[in-house]
Amino acid sequence: MKCQIIFLILAATIISCNKKTDVKTVSIQKDTLYQSIADETETEDEEIFTAPEFPKTGKTADDFVVGSYIIKMKAEGFLNDDGLKDVVIALQNENDNGDSRAVLVLLKQETGEYKLQDISWEALDPEYTETGYQMYTSEEIFIENKILHIMLQSGGGPSGTRETLYKYVNNDLVLIEMHTFNSGAGAHLSSDYNLMTGVVEHEVTNTLRDSMPSEHETKKFQLKRQMLFAKDNPNSVLENLPGSENF
User: Cα–Cα 20 to 30 A to 198, which of 20, 24, 113, 151?
Assistant: First the structure.
């Protein structure tokens, strides 16, 4: 009888130890999994671009320049119907020509000051790629007929030429047109996109023949929403628009 009691006590002790071991193992696994997630989150946070805080108002365009940024391009003109001349500036990080670039729209107020109306980190790509390649050799912004033009030219490089046109529609600065020109093997392609009417016209020129004949084609497309200056990258917009089948 005593032997049976001792055996039962030993069995209970072994079972209890096994249960404690299982609980400890699960606890370690949970801690390891939590730590792994925390490390990944920290890595992702380090890669997130933090945009600088620009002043909301200023007396001159220079008042909106912060940190290591400088004004790379500047345009003056009328963007709305108040009869006051507005300003648009493109900012470049003076210490990093491969950094993201901001385009600021400054609307003139009756008080004489400027109001920061819109900011876009999408309208302009970095001047240089990560490998040190300059995307466009000529860049220009100007305002004409209440429309903001951003003209980029690569001087015959693979990037070609791209002009984007923005206009205020119901207080939103909207991408209304895109014009591109590209050279390929034996052909040139000129494309005019009207994002308001949903029509694109392509002109393909055959450069392999002395007469350089051209073919014209028109296509229609439909956008799910308006493309916005502050939100949409023109490169991404172009990727989803119809191209020429003859190029």
Answer: 151
- Is there a contact between 247 and 184 (Cβ–Cβ < 8 Å)? yes
* In contact, 193 and 82? CB cutoff 8 Å: no
Indicate the average pLDDT of the chain: 84
pTM over 0.85: no
Q: How far apart are CA 148 and CA 144, in angstroms?
A: 7
Closest to 76 measured CA to CA, from 107, 110, 118, 119: 107
Across the range 54-61, mean pLDDT stands at 98
Non-local (6+) Cβ contacts of 206 within 8 A are 186, 187, 212, 213, 214, 215
pLDDT value for 1 = 45
> Looking at residue 47, what is its pLDDT?
55
Q: Nearest-CA neighbor of 190 among 217, 212, 158, 210? A: 217
Beta-carbon contacts of 172 under 8 Å, excluding residues fewer than 6 positions away, are: 226, 228
CA distance 117 to 108: 10
| CA separation for the pair 20, 8 (Å, rounded) | 19
Kindly write down the DSSP assignment for every residue of 13-48, as one continuous string.
Answer: HHHHHHHHHHHHHHHHHHHHHHHHHHHHHHHHHHHS
- Would you place residue 212 in the very low, low, confident or very high pLDDT band (cuts 50, 70, 90)? confident
Structure tokens at 173: 């600065």
DSSP state of 237: H
